[in-house]
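Treating backbone geometry as a discrete language has practical consequences that deserve illustration. The amino acid sequence and the backbone structure tokens for this protein are reproduced below.
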Amino acid sequence: MRRLIMFVCVASLVLSACGEQQLGRRIVECEGPAQSLSASTILTAQAVPGTEYIPCLEALRPGWHPNHVEAKSGQAYFTIDSDRMGLEFLRVTLLPSCDVGSAVQAPSDEGGVTYWVDVIEEDTEVAIVVIPVAARHHNYATLVVARLMSESMRGRNVVAALDESDRGISEKVAAAHGSGRQVIIVDDAEVDTETVSLRLIGDDEEAGLEFEEAVEEIEDDAEEPAYEARWFYTFDDGCVRYDIDAEGEGAQSVRRDIAQAISLYPMAEIYELARDAGYKGFE
């Protein structure tokens, strides 16, 4: 948790006196130290009375921009746009409580706060299975796997695996395609010519492709990366909910990027600053 610089707006210190309040284009920043309290500091604090934390901004990633910031009785929120993942791909909302539904508890990056994750869609990788027809093709197949793992396709990471099980080739291909993975097969001809055979899902086999040709065809078949989820940070008398709907380049790393961009700031420090500044109601 860091010191705080709050966004600026002209508003009453009492939330009920101004109802719903548009707070402009500034978002709470975690950097500091705070030099003074603005009216909007109190407004945000009183949006959810008694909240233990409020969300704050560490640093936006390149291409990320604030869209909307608002506080009203019972909630305060802001949204973030991305030049690659679309408008309002992220909404962060402070609430009195959250129904986490089917979300699963996960290790928290915020001390003293419980973290829950509900992933609706995650499609951020291109999965490929490499099948050597015989044991003598193992070394070349391993090389193909290593080369694939160094690739990136439509902004998506590539995950490649070797299938050397005892199942037949047709069974291996069917199993890979059934789980959404593309297939590369290597046989004597591919080893001799340093090429590969490609089996895209729903297509016939293409033999004798150069490695770069196979990568290009797999990439052409791949969708844009996507990540849609709800995160919940729950604590006494409050909750911060993240609504994430990211599609396009950047979605493959959006979980890490959001965790680094947004943090929580303890209200206890704000109350102390308010009391020191002589605001009534904070004695």
The two ends are 24 Å apart (CA to CA).
